Amino acid sequence: MSRLYPGATGDWEAVIGLEIHAQVISEAKLFSGAATAFGAEPNTQVSFVCSAQPGMLPVINEECVRQAVRTGLAMGCKINLRSIFDRKNYFYADLPQGYQISQFKDPIVGEGVVTIDLEDGSTKEIGVERLHLEQDAGKSMHDQHPTMTYVDLNRSGVALMEIVSKPDMRTPEEAAAYFKKIRSIVRYAGTCDGNMEQGSMRADVNVSVRRPGEAFGTRTETKNVNSIRYVTQVVESEIRRQIDLIEDGGTVNQETRLFEVATGTTRPMRSKEEAHDYRYFPDPDLLPLEFSQEFVDQLAKEMPELADAKKERFIRDLHITPYNAAVLTAEKENADYFETLLAATVDKTGKPISELGSLVSNWITSDLFGALKKLGKSINESPVSIEHAAELLGLQLDGTISGRIAKDVFDIMLDTGNSPEAIVEEKGLKQVSDTGAIEAMIDEILAENADKVEEYRGGKDKLFGFFVGQVMKKTGGKANPQVVNQLLRPKLDG
Amino acid sequence: MTELTKFTLSEARNALHKGDISSRELTEAHLNAMEDAKELNCFVAVTAEKAMEMADNADAMIKAGNAKGMTGIPIGMKDLYCTKGVHSQTCSHILDGFKPEYESTVSQNLWDDGAVMLGKTNMDEFAMGSSNENSYYGPVKNPWRAAGSDKDTVPGGSSGGSAAAVAADIAIATTGTDTGGSIRQPASFAGLVGLKPTYGRCSRWGMIAFASSLDQAGPLTKTVRDAAIMMESMAGYDPKDSTSINIPVPNYEAALKGDIRGLKVGVPSEYRVDGMPQEIENLWQKGIDWLKDAGAEIVDISLPHTKYALPTYYIVAPAECSSNLARYDGVKYGLRVAGSSLDDMYKKTRAAGFGDEVKRRILIGTYVLSAGYYDAYYLKAQKVRTLIANDFKAAYEKCDVILTPTAPSAAFALGDKVDDPLAMYLNDVFTVPASLAGLPGISVPAGLSAEGLPLGLQLLGQAFGEEQLLNVADVLETAAGFKHKPAKWWGDAS
Amino acid sequence: MSIDKDTVAKIANLARIEVSEKELESTVGELNNILDWVEQLSEVDTDGVEAMTSVVEASLPRREDKVTDGGYRDSVLKNAPQAEHGFFAVPKVIE
């Protein structure tokens, strides 16, 4: 899908590429044995190696290598059995070595393609250029002291995967969808937690504009964009800014920019103004990273189930509609929630899993998602626990409450956080299945509506629904609809 | 001074093991000699208290029957090794006050074996130099002077303090480090044995890096046997150094069999460089004859890329150093000179903290790695380096070891070459090729120059061929019968 | 390839070493001497030759993913010219 942006002098096309930095899930850092856990006191997860003390040397963490390979496999990329670590040289307060160990010419993962899903239901293939392993820098804090910047090296040396896309995106929506897709992939692969608030994932967004069909324009790079919404905003504002700039007779500078949340726009980054020359060269403290095809094959064999495979399985084994399966597998947390709830419901009801998939998936995609959307919450922040949700579905399945009552109970659960069983008990919402009581009620209703009975018997079949409605009304919706049906029809048919 | 300081390492070891002397008295004697030899400026830090403590521990080890080769031997550690809580500044102003919180693997190995640290030896700043005149702590004076002269000569470099200390009998042995000849050339200038083992034989962990792909630890000793004993203690695999090689450390002393019959000694024609003094040429011929007399077969070999070794070295080593020394930025340790901004602080700190030669090499290294020049300089040099390594591989098809002079001259006068970097670089013409190929080399004192200054011959071995190398060196040493000592002119006339 | 004052100034800036105007002059000469000398490498035919990445014939050793280090902030900060509240402190940076 190619979208054009109208300017005063004609149409423009945007070209967008993303460099996504994804923090590898590992206990220890890429080249040092210090911990990676988030939120520790400053400089407490720092070794002599990650604070670049004289004479210290890097030794690579094998799990980080595996994670990079897994991610490469999950993106369908070529895995390079030999790769080289290079030093990227530049000075900065939070870069203790004065260089970052990264991979330049020979990355661990080569080309691949990922498919993104767009809102109109269409898909698009976005090329992945490469994935390489590198060290994260520390953290500079500029607002703690009037004249000093404080440096915390806890992050220094944590393993990152830099995933570089090809410049294949053309719209903010595509950029956002790609970011989302990569996040989904790494989360499924179990290689990055995708937690953007904690900085586990962030993107450098490259944007340029051109006249359709012409060569690429000059691009800008906006650094460290840490939400999908911000990626959209960065792309939108950069496209607009660059079109306006060019149409006013200016030229786009190849520069590094910063996103400002308050305004939703970008500005040039002051500290990176001077042209950098990173002087990459192979790190002489490390040898080439080499592994066998068997190593890769083994990792492929042990790979967790990825989104596409999961979707197919849901449709095939759990009899879920393709639409629901797609919705549930788009994000790993949704699929996880579904599978956990399904298992809990199986436990609760003792029914076979294949009979429950449809009910559980419908409940999540309509009832739960609807409620969460209203509350503005994510699935992980759901006010309803798995246990309560399973209980609710169990009550519905064993006939204790009807589907309609279940919706009321769910609303009360959202408000109070109480268990559905307690709610049903307290409010007396148990379904009435007592045939005697229902029969008496039916007799009463038939007597009260003798004219309607005549009409029905005269051939007006549609009135059957009216009588069911009357029974439900009389019981406050608690009558078991099946029982009502069974009893009502012979009586009406006389 | 007593005779205790005249002991070779193996003699001292034997006397210690027999109980004829204690480490305490041996150490005291050397501390006294150090005090007496202050004007040589061999040591930049004396650890007398620690030495006595270590000596007592060593005596206890010996009593308990746990003595090793190095137990109780008082040695000097080059200032480049990080020693916990002790001056470790690679004789640079930029590391002012730096006392590491950790111990280098090589020094730890020595202490584990019971060696005694007398102090930290003077050196060219960051091991960059061939005369020890680039030390922030001032030059070292070579105990050797030309016959009848009172002019100071240089001890060579960069391990100049280490060499002078052993030559003046103020340490039984010392550690050095060799990047392009920094052990072998000073050994030659001071009438000592200096061994640079195969790259990867000793751990570089805790050695303050100059050029990571070249730096290796090694001993400076009075005899080949001493070198064998000390090497065994220093060497070994270290999982903290990715370039350290996991093969067992042999008993090097046991390799000194004194028999080299049938061994093939290669003599490379390319080492007959233009302008080589006749006395060096003559000494080399003597060496060839000695080995032939001992039953070795002399083989003419060719190392065609020899003349390109020095220029290759002076691209590769500065490139690595420009990156290795980026960490000295006034943030984490050492000197900080205040500046108006972070960059200004960096620039002022590094301008004040590094000496001229270090700055020169950082600038050269920065240039050869910079955009547009990388291919022409750095990449080209690494390709030539491959050719140089291939030359050796081809040569070792024809011979077992290679015999060459160690340096193109005897020790020169202090101040002679300080203003001519290129002339200084030429000192390493014979030592640099093996460094580039990662091969072991040893300098053995073989004679005196016409002026009465020591001259060494160099033997080069195959990768991890230290046993054979030491065996041949031992034979060469015996044949040369070098028993000269510098006439004492320093301290209390004795 | 001979370098001029501007180039030296640029390199010195990349290397974060302050060089005075006077030092610049002499440095240009010194560096050109060295660069002219290393220039002789261009005579060597290196077509098809692999650049050396390591003199050691081994592949990169890997360590287990275990936390074995860190947790000693005082030691890490001990040699710092300026440390405050558990941080390294540097002149303020404006991004």
Q: What does this molecule look like?
A:
The complex is a heterotrimer of chains A (494), B (494) and C (95). Chain A has 494 residues and is an alpha+beta fold. In chain A, 41% of the residues lie in helices and 19% in strands. Chain A has 3 domains: 19-193 and 260-297, no CATH class; 305-427, no CATH class; 435-493, Arc Repressor Mutant, subunit A (Orthogonal Bundle). In chain B, α2 runs antiparallel to α3 and α9 packs across α11. Chain B is built from 15 helices and 11 strands. Chain B has an 11-stranded mixed β-sheet with strand order 1-3-2-4-6-5-10-11-9-7-8, with helices on both faces. Helix content of chain B is 36%, strand content 12%. Chain B is an alpha/beta fold and 494 residues long. Chain C has a domain at 5-43: Histone, subunit A. Chain C has 3 helices and 3 strands. Chain C has a two-stranded antiparallel sheet. Chains B and C meet through α9, α10, α11 and α12 of B and α1, α2 and β3 of C.
Query: Sheet with the most strands of chain A?
Result: 9 strands, mixed
Helical stretch count of chain C? Answer: 3
Strand content of chain C: 5-15%
Strand order of the largest sheet of chain C: 2-3
Major β-sheet of chain C, in short?
2 strands, antiparallel
Distance between the termini of chain A: 63 Å
Notable traits:
heterotrimer; A: 494 residues; alpha+beta; Arc Repressor Mutant, subunit A; 3 domains; 9-stranded mixed beta sheet; 3-stranded antiparallel beta sheet; 15 helices; 41% helix; elongated; C: 95 residues; Histone, subunit A; two-stranded antiparallel ribbon; 3 helices; 3 strands
